[in-house]
Design brief:
The chain is α/β, with parallel strands linked by helices. Helices cover 28% and strands 34% of the residues. The chain contains four helices and twelve strands; from the N terminus they run βαββαβαββββββββα. The chain has a single domain, classed as Class I glutamine amidotransferase (GATase) domain (Rossmann fold, 3-Layer(aba) Sandwich), CATH 3.40.50.880. It binds glutamine. The site of glutamine (GLN) has 11 residues, from helix 3.
Length: 194
């Protein structure tokens, strides 16, 4: 089971490091054809506009196709913006794999980055979370579960095999969130083999 990390821009190495510490075969994905060689994809934080421009329409189109087939995605921060069905102030989504609306930079400017400890449904307590100009989830569609809140805002959610977080779990040493995503991927792989 190989997991891809979208390697166009942003906190790519940090996700690779977390996955490697869990003993997972990891591949940095920079080209569309590499998407065929992985069982799941992590979209890192960084700058959503930059990531989408570097990848371009063919990349986004392939991600949209994969989303329709139940492919597991985990988007952190900018990655969550790329996966959201709706982005405040923007007419079109990028991939639209999860039925949420997000507000970009909702938690303030770069100087307002902060760390918090979160309780995450189904995962555990006191999970360290780094927020950097983080987007907040402002609407949850039907079938989307809120997994964590901070200051009254939903900051982590899941719909089927798609997981998103406003914050960066890969910038901490806590591997519980990555482990949770791996479970989603493993379950899906087992179902495919049935
Ligand atoms: N504000 C960034 C964006 O809009 C996301 C910030 C981050 O990924 N740390 O893409």
């Amino acid at each position: 089971m190989r997991i891809g990390v979208l390697g166009l821009q942003g906190a790519v190495r940090e996700h690779v490091r977390s996955l490697s510490r869990l003993g997972v075969d990891t591949r940095v994905v920079k080209r569309v054809d590499q998407l065929d060689e992985i069982a799941a994809l992590i979209l890192p934080g960084g700058e959503s506009t930059a990531i989408s421009l570097i990848g371009g329409e063919p990349f986004l189109e392939r991600l949209r196709e994969l989303a329709k087939s139940g492919f597991p995605f985990f988007g952190t921060c900018a990655g969550m913006i790329l996966l959201a069905r709706e982005i405040e102030g923007r007419s079109e989504p990028y991939v639209g794999a999860i039925d949420i609306t997000v507000a970009r930079n909702a938690s303030g400017r770069q100087v307002h980055s902060f760390e918090a400890l979160l309780n995450v449904d189904g995962i555990g307590h006191d999970i360290p979370a780094v927020f950097i100009r983080a987007p907040y989830i402002t609407r949850l569609g039907e079938g989307v579960s809120a997994l964590a809140k901070y200051d009254g805002h939903v900051v982590m959610a899941r719909q089927g095999n798609v997981l998103v977080s406003s914050f960066h779990p890969e910038l901490t040493d806590d591997l519980r969130i990555h482990e949770y995503f791996l479970n989603i991927v493993e379950k899906r792989n087992q179902e495919d083999m049935k």
